[in-house]
Structure formats: C-alpha cells, structure tokens
Amino acid sequence: MVAVAETVRRPTRRLPGSGTISFIGRLFRDKPLGAFGFVICVIFLFCGIFADWLAPYGYNQISPINRLKPPSEKFWLGTDNLGRDMLSRCLYGAQLSVIIGLSAAALATVVSILIGIVSGYLGGKFDMIMQRFVDAWMSFPDLIILIVVVSVVGPGMGPVIVLLGLLYGIGGSRIIRGAVLSVRENAYVHAAQSTGATMPRILWKHILPNVMAPVIVLFTTRVGAVILAESGLAFLGLGVPPPAPTWGGMLSGSGRSFMYLAPWLALAPGLCITIVVYAINVFGDALRDLLDPRMRGSR
Fold it and tell me: Does the pTM of the predicted model rise above 0.85?
C-alpha cells in the first residue's frame, strides 16, 4: 500500500517537446487565423531552404525564345523579359528574404534586449541618457537612414542585415524597456538583490525569462518589417545587387518595366511579399495573445 501511495504521489514527468506540441495544439485550436499564418510561414521557409531542389530552373537561366511567356503548364508563373522562369526566381527570392529577414530580425531582437533590459533595470540618469538617444534615433525617417547608409557603404546582403538590425533594434528597445520596468518591481527581483546576486545574474535569471513573451512577439513582427524594408531598398536599387533575385528587385526591374505587357511579372513577387508579411503579422498577433498572461487566450 505504501508503494502504491508513493507511486500515486510521484509527479509525472513531461516528455521532451510536449510543451511545444501542446502550445502548437492551442494555437490551432484557439487561434485558427494565427495557425494559418504559421503554416504559411513554414511553407515559405521550406521553399526558401530547399529552393535549389524545388526550383525547376536556375534563377538566372536565360532563354530568349521563352521571353514574356504567360503562366502555363510549363512555366507556372510565366517568364520575364529575358526568358527566366518566374517561379524559380520567386523561390530563390524566398531564400534571400528568409536569410535577410531572420538574420536582421534576430540582430534587432538582440539589440533591443541589450538596450531595453539594461536601461529599464538601471533607471536613473543612464536610462534618461539612453532614452534620449533612442528618441533622437527614432526621429529620423527610417527610409532616409537606409538610403544614406547603403549609399555610403554599398549594397549587399551583409550591410543590409546589419543596418536593418540596428535600425529596428534601437527603436524596438522601448518595448523591452517597458516590460522590464514592470518586472523589476516584483518580489523575486528584490529577493535576488537582497541575497547579493550580481546584476548580470539578475538580468539573465530573473528579468529576461519574464519578458520573453514581448521578445518573441517583437521578433515575429520584425521579420515582416525587415522583409518589407529590404523589398523597398531592392526596389530603389540599394538592396542585394543583381543577378541575385529578390522580390523587391523583381518588382523594380522587369516588373515595373513590363507590368502592362506582362502583369504576372509584378503580381508574382508582389503577392509573395503580401502573403508572407500578412502571415507573419497574424502569427505574431496569435503569439501575443497566447503568451501574454493578461490576454484571455493565454489561459
């Protein structure tokens, strides 16, 4: 009887990954629109990673005999003015957009965390000076900063990722700082301070885990913003240089020149940008509702 009682009292161990599976189940059950956005993001991520195997043709494979062909069984999205398959170029464009979007959003999130956590926890004069710097940075139009810096440094994937990461990271630190201001007043933070815990330990063990919900949402929203910003730079000729296909570059090149003669040149990359950004935004909204304890969907 004692053994049976101990067996009953013994807490059940959760299988590895069960929390993630449960969270995905809640996402599909409580937030169907967010689940739809999640599925679309996964599909485009899969297409971007495996573009080399999924694309029927090379992204710069020129065939003058097939120039400006409308969508057909052979060319699902048609061809451009040089005879290049638009489906293949959109798939490779997804690869570049995924790399730039995820890398720049990750850098922006790290910058936001570093500035927001330290500024919100320390407070005082350091917080005031840091926030005035953030105010000055946010007073400049984003597009102007992008155009000026890329014009000086030069176009390319590396400069675009670093610039977009810093641009959105400094501005996004306000969100993290606001969450830290409310978390630092909790009892467990004061208890850690009274026991002599160092500031890095408090920030890492007590502050950061309790602001992860806005951090995750900030990351998802920054991915969509970065893709839009990169598309705008590519449209202006300041993004990744050709012949590398980007959705914004396809819109500004053949898409703008031949959009009346061959509208699929503008529709294909334009729809890709619209669908991906919309899917990321609705997925980010669903994450906010599920992770924020103040929202009804988080229960």
Answer: no
